[in-house]
Structure formats: C-alpha cells, structure tokens
Amino acid sequence: MASLKIEGTVLTPASGDAYAAALERNSALSQLPAGLVVQPASYADVAAALAFARAQAPPLEVAVKCGGTHSATWASSAGGLVLDLAPLNRVALADDRKSISVQGGARWGDVYEVTARERVDVAGSPLWFIGVGGFSTGGGYGPLMGEHGLAIDNLLEATVVLADGRIVKTSKDEEPDLFWAIRGGGGQFGVVVELVFKVHPYAGPFGAGVLAFPGTEIEKVVHAIKTWKDSMSPAEKLTISFSRPAPHFKPSVTLLPMVLHDTDGERSAKVLAPFRTGALKPVFEKVASVPDLNTASHGADASLKSAPRRLIIRGTITSDFTPALVLAVWQKWVAFTETSEDVRGSAVMFDVTHPGKLTAVGAADTALPLRVPHYWMAIQGRSTTDEGVAAASAWTKDLAEFVRQKNTELSGTDLGWFINMCQGDERPEDVFGANLPRLRKLKAKYDPHKVFSKGVVIEPLAE
Ligand SMILES: Cc1cc2nc3c(=O)[nH]c(=O)nc-3n(C[C@H](O)[C@H](O)[C@H](O)COP(=O)(O)OP(=O)(O)OC[C@H]3O[C@@H](n4cnc5c(N)ncnc54)[C@H](O)[C@@H]3O)c2cc1C
C-alpha cells in the first residue's frame, strides 16, 4: 500500500499508544481496529485521505469520527480508514456576534467554552463530549430546542468535502440540495468540515440539577410530569431517567431539569413545585443556578463516569408523554434490570421539551422528517461484562419496538426511528419517511459509489 502524505497525522497499528487512543469511543462496543487512522490538519487532508481510500484495491472502507459518541460502530472501521476529525475543532464567533463557525471535529464543549466566555448561546447538545458533526447531521435535540429548534434549524451554512474530493460550500442559496441532505440525512453525503450556526442572546442563568424519587413513587411522579408538561413553556425542559443508583441499586426515577433565563431561581422553583408537594417529595435534591451551557453540559460527568462502558443506545419517538406508556416502560425496565448484576446499569431516559419550534419547520424542508409534536426517548442497554452484552442488546431492541408499536396504537401515527439513536439495522424508510426518495437521488448525485456507507444506509437512486 503506497503511503498517504498529508500535513496531519497518519496512525497505524504500529503507532502504539497514539493509535490505541484514536480508536477509543464513548461505548467500548463501538471500537474497531482500523487499518489506519487519519487525523487531518486541513480540509485538503480530508480530500487526500478520501482519494487514498478510493485508490486501494479493493477501496478501503471509510468511517468518519467527530465526538466518537455514537453507540453503534458508525465512526469506526475494522481494517478500513478512519477519518478522525478531532484536530479540526476550531470555533470562531463572527465579529457581528450573529453566527459562530465550528469545525466538523469539534465537540460541543469546544463551542460552549467560547459561548460561555462571550455570553451568547447556540442550539447545541446537552453534553459537552458529544461531537458537533454527528449530533448536527442527525438533527440535534438540545437544551435550547424549546426556544430555538433543532441544531439543524440553526445551521446557516456548511463546508463539505465530497466523496470525489471536491470541497464545497453549502447553504439555502449555494448547493441547496446538499444543504437539505446534511440537515437530518446523517453523515452519508460527505464530510462536513465546517458548520456555521445562528447565535442567540445569552439564555442563562440556567436552573439545572437532579431530583430523585424512589421507584415506589413512580406513578405519582409520572402523573406530576404529565401535569407539568401540559402547561410547560419553551424555556423549560425535563429529562426523566430510570436508573438504579449505588449503593442500594434500587429502582429510582430521577428528574433532570433545565430551565432557561432562571435569573433568581424563581422560574425553576415554579417548574419544580409539582414535585415538591407534601404528597411527593424527592429523597435527594440538588438544583442550582449554573452560569452557562458549558457548566451545565458537565453536570452528568460523575454519573456517566461510573456507568458501564459497554453501551448500546436505541432511541424511540413518542407523540406525547403518556402515563400508560411510560409506566409500561418502567415495568419492563425494572424486570430487565433485575435479571442480573451485569445489566442493572441499563437505563431509560425520556426527554420532554416544548415541541413548538420543532414543528415550525416543514417535514420536507430538511431531511429530518419528524416535524409533528414528539418527544424522544433513549433506551440504554449497559453491561459490566461481555457476557451481558447480548441480553442488553436484545432488551434494547425489544423495548424500542414495544414503544414504537404502543405509541402507534395510542396515537394512530407511526413515528419511526430517530437517526441519532439508531443502530443501523433499521429500515431507511422508517428513519427518513417520505424524504427517503429525495435522499436516494441526492446520494446518487453526491456519493454514487457509497464511499460513506456507515449508518442507516441510503442506497443511491439514479434519476
Ligand atoms: C450519552 C449520550 C447522550 C445523547 N444525547 C443526545 C441528545 O440529547 N440529543 C441528540 O440529538 N442526540 C443525542 N445523542 C446522540 C448523538 O447525538 C449521536 O450519537 C451523534 O451521532 C453523536 O455525534 P458524534 O459526532 O459524537 O458521533 P461519532 O460517533 O463521531 O459519529 C457518529 C456518526 O456521525 C457521522 N459524523 C460525525 N461527524 C461528522 C462530520 N463532521 N461529517 C459527516 N459525518 C459525521 C459519522 O460518520 C458517524 O456516522 C446522545 C448520545 C449519547 C451517547
């Protein structure tokens, strides 16, 4: 194999620790032994790496890695070429402070360091370590969604290195088909090396923290959430988590509030009032005012650090926060996490954010077809051992299918799957819905030979 000459770094198994470090992913199950890892120093390096992969016989599989947090193996390759975009992480606020340019290998923490310093905000992820590239090409549901929509609804323009090596700018006016496809079509149209997002006025301080209730209170908590949700504002959201915390490992329901513009703590006090009545009282509570999204995005660091690293996530979408459905999920989660110590770290998360802004965009306006009111839910199968992985994986799949079916029965609408939390075995029509035919035509236009073939694969369709 002729060597690849670039300005950046090329790592092979012979590179030792640096190679091993470059293979690391958020989930231990997402790691694969790449043939080579390319860490580009420029957009031309990205093009050169793609040309190199294409020139091999047979061509090398290409995987693109930004934050490395996707829980399938989409950002890894067994024997192929991994484009590790980590060095491309520059973030620059425009002089007029209306937009921010972020390179495609940045994590949201890189962005939040700048926005916190400059006292502005951007519609990014709830967690600092999630990559801007993967999060955004899959839609991007985050803490500012209630007020400003998805990450893709805030994207103004992007720079993409196409499969044939061309480096193109794309926006609503320039190469608009490509701009449409990368907003929700996933990473299968090119390597997005730069994204320019709309900047919003500072949305803090933020009321954030944890309220934990014992599992015995689940029905009361779920009904209180439903009551809160029916009058929630776009400035407040709750993440609801089912987990078994140490040292007792008993079922627990935890609320993680995120309240924007919480200047004197009054807004968060109002949001949390239904959960602090005489009849319902948290056994543990730590809610505080945090100054910026950078701080808030580190809030889950300690609990995530102690969670088992063998992780499979599947996301589902529900039309409403329906107590009957949520309680059925609770029972299934309790039963599964009782089966063995290996898998008791498995968890379920519901995200309840005001969907108004999300639905202000049409289903065909971006590649992401989910524009009716909806809420996402993450099913996290975790195992402490290799032996527990098959059970955690099967449970994750079964529960996702149960939720989808139950939601369809209750609402009369099948919402399919959420690309950012897919595993790759989903049918593309269930992910991209009515937008699939256009995506297939654009795949033929931008990547006819399927250089980018990781994910829920879109087959090219020649016109
Ligand atoms: C703990 C946890 C919490 C999460 N919470 C949320 C949430 O609140 N909201 C939400 O929307 N999602 C959430 N996700 C899902 C997450 O957004 C996706 O897994 C996303 O793909 C991660 O992006 P990444 O860059 O870190 O991924 P990577 O693993 O690096 O890549 C994932 C995929 O994106 C593609 N990709 C990455 N960067 C680029 C690029 N620059 N150009 C082209 N393609 C690219 C890759 O090819 C790959 O297919 C969560 C995931 C985890 C693990």
UniProtKB/TrEMBL annotation:
Lineage in the entry? Eukaryota, Fungi, Dikarya, Basidiomycota, Agaricomycotina
Stored Pfam families: BBE (PF08031), FAD_binding_4 (PF01565)
Annotated FAD-binding PCMH-type domain residues:
29-202
UniProt keyword Flavoprotein present = yes
Molecular functions (GO terms)? FAD binding; oxidoreductase activity
Annotated protein name in UniProt: FAD-binding domain-containing protein
Q: Which Gene3D superfamilies match?
A: 3.30.465.10, 3.40.462.20, Uridine Diphospho-n-acetylenolpyruvylglucosamine Reductase, domain 2
Q: Mind listing the UniProt keywords for this protein, alphabetically?
A: FAD, Flavoprotein, Oxidoreductase
Which cofactor(s) does the record list?
FAD
Q: Which InterPro entries match?
A: BBE, FAD-bd_PCMH, FAD-bd_PCMH-like_sf, FAD-bd_PCMH_sub1, FAD-bd_PCMH_sub2, FAD-linked_Oxidoreductase, Oxid_FAD_bind_N
Family in the record: Belongs to the oxygen-dependent FAD-linked oxidoreductase family.
